[in-house]
C-alpha cells in the first residue's frame, strides 16, 4: 500500500519543477551550493510563508521539530545562517520567473469578470510597504523612513496579479509605467487612478487599441466638441465628447476623449471620468472605475495574510526574494481554488493548509471538508526529534 505524503509535499507537486530548474540554471542559482540548493531554499521560504514565521530562528526551530515529516522533502536541518546567506546571495529573479510560470497555469482556469462585455479587464495601482530606514538603507523613501512600492496589474478575471514591478518607495507610478511595458493586449480595458494621469502614456494606450478609464483632475481644461449620447443610467449626469485646450496637452493627446459625469450616491459626490471608449454605456464606465476597488482589497489581503511586511533579511535581494515567494504562494492557493472549484474563500483555504500542512493526508480530502468537520479534525501527535549538543 502506497503511503500518503503530507499536504506540504502535495502542494510542492504543483510547482513546475522543470521550469524552476531551468530558471535556476539560467541565473546560476546552484553554482556555489554544496547542499542547500535553490529548491531547498524555496521549500524553506514557502514553509515560512504558510506557517507565518517571523524570524530565521523560528523557521529553524519549526523545521527541526518537524524533521521526521520533512525528511521526504529532502530537507535536513536548515541553519538560519545558511538560509540568511542564500537569501542575500541567490538571485531573486529565479522566483520571479517561477511566479510567471505559475501565473500561466492559473489563467487557464480562472472565471471571467462580472461585466457583460468580453474584453479583458485590468486595474493598475501601487501600494507602499513601509520599512525601517536604519535596517534597509537602500530603500530610502523619506528623510527618516524607508519603503518599497509594489506596482501591480490586476486581472479581474480570477483576481490575479498578472504583472508586478517592485521599486523603491520614491518611484512615482507614472514613471514606472514609462519604464516598464505592462502586458496590456489590444481590445483590453484598464482602469487607473489620477496618479497615472499622464496624457502621453494614455495616448500610447489609444494607439495600441487599449481602452482606459480614469478620473479627471480638478484643473482639467477641455472643450466640449459634442454630446456623446443622452445621459442614461442611474447617476449619469453628463456624457460628452471633449478635446484638450492647452497646446502641450494637445501634443500629448491629440485625439478626442469621452467625459462622463456621474453622481455617486454612496459617497454623496460628483465624480468625473475620462475614457477613450465610446462604445460602452456611461453607467458601465462608472462601474469599471468602481471595480478598481478590487485591487485595493488585493493589496490589503496580501499584506494581512502573507509575510511581506516583516522580512527575514535586510538586503534588497533578500526582500525581493521573500516578496516573490509570497506571490508564488498566492498563485498556488488560487490554482488550488480554481482547479478544485473550492467553495470557500482564499483566506479559509490558506488557514486549512496552514493547520494541516504536515499531516499525512491527501490534499483533496481536506478541501472537501465542511467548516464544522474541519474544526473536529484530530491531527496526529507531532514527535519532536531534537538533537542536543554533545549527543
Q: What is the topological layout?
A:
Layout: H1 7-12, H2 17-26, H3 38-51, H4 56-65, H5 67-70, H6 80-89, H7 93-107, E1 121-131, E2 146-155, E3 160-168, H8 173-179, E4 189-192, H9 199-207, E5 211-215, E6 222-227, E7 236-244, H10 247-252, E8 257-264, E9 269-275, H11 282-290, H12 293-305, H13 316-340, H14 346-356, H15 363-367, H16 371-375
Parallel strand pairs: 1-4, 4-5
Antiparallel strand pairs: 1-2, 2-3, 5-9, 6-7, 7-8, 8-9
Please, could you describe this protein's structure?
The protein has 16 helices and 9 strands. With 391 residues, the chain is of the alpha+beta class. Among the domains are: 7-97 and 316-375, no CATH class; 194-279, no CATH class. Strand 8 (257-264) and strand 9 form a beta hairpin. Helix 7 packs parallel to helix 13. The two termini are 36 Å apart.
Amino acid at each position: 500500500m502506497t503511503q500518503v505524503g503530507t499536504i506540504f509535499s502535495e502542494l510542492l507537486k504543483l510547482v513546475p519543477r522543470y521550469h524552476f530548474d531551468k530558471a535556476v540554471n539560467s541565473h546560476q542559482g546552484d553554482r556555489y551550493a554544496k547542499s542547500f540548493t535553490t529548491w531547498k531554499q524555496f521549500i524553506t521560504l514557502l514553509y515560512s510563508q504558510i506557517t507565518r514565521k517571523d524570524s530565521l530562528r523560528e523557521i529553524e526551530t519549526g523545521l527541526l521539530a518537524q524533521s521526521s515529516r520533512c525528511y521526504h522533502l529532502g530537507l535536513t536541518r536548515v541553519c538560519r545562517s545558511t538560509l540568511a546567506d542564500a537569501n542575500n546571495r541567490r538571485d531573486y529573479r529565479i522566483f520571479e520567473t517561477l511566479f510567471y510560470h505559475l501565473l500561466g497555469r492559473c489563467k487557464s482556469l480562472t472565471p471571467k469578470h462580472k461585466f457583460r462585455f468580453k474584453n479583458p479587464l485590468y486595474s493598475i495601482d501601487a501600494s507602499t510597504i513601509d520599512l525601517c530606514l536604519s535596517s534597509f538603507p537602500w530603500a530610502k523613501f523619506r528623510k527618516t523612513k524607508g519603503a518599497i512600492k509594489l506596482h501591480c496589474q490586476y486581472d479581474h478575471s480570477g483576481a490575479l496579479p498578472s504583472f508586478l514591478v517592485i521599486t523603491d518607495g520614491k518611484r512615482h507610478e507614472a514613471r514606472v509605467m514609462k519604464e516598464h511595458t505592462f502586458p496590456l493586449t489590444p481590445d483590453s480595458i484598464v482602469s487607473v487612478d489620477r496618479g497615472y494621469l499622464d496624457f502621453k502614456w494614455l495616448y500610447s494606450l489609444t494607439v495600441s487599441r487599449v481602452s482606459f478609464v480614469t478620473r479627471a483632475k480638478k484643473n482639467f481644461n477641455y472643450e466640449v466638441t459634442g454630446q456623446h449620447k443622452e445621459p442614461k443610467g442611474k447617476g449619469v449626469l453628463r456624457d460628452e465628447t471633449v478635446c484638450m485646450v492647452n497646446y502641450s496637452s494637445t501634443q500629448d493627446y491629440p485625439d478626442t476623449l469621452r467625459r462622463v459625469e456621474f453622481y455617486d450616491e454612496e459617497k454623496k459626490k460628483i465624480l468625473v471620468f475620462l475614457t477613450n471608449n465610446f462604445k460602452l454605456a456611461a453607467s458601465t464606465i462608472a462601474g469599471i472605475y468602481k471595480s478598481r476597488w478590487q485591487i485595493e482589497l488585493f493589496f490589503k489581503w496580501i499584506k494581512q495574510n502573507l509575510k511581506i511586511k516583516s522580512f527575514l533579511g535586510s538586503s534588497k535581494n533578500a526582500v525581493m526574494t521573500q516578496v516573490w515567494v509570497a506571490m508564488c504562494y498566492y498563485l498556488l492557493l488560487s490554482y488550488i481554488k480554481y482547479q478544485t472549484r473550492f467553495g470557500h474563500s482564499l483566506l479559509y483555504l490558506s488557514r486549512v493548509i496552514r493547520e494541516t500542512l504536515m499531516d499525512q493526508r491527501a490534499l483533496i480530502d481536506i478541501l472537501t471538508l465542511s467548516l464544522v468537520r474541519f474544526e473536529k479534525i484530530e491531527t496526529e501527535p507531532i514527535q519532536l526529534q531534537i538533537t542536543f549538543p554533545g549527543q
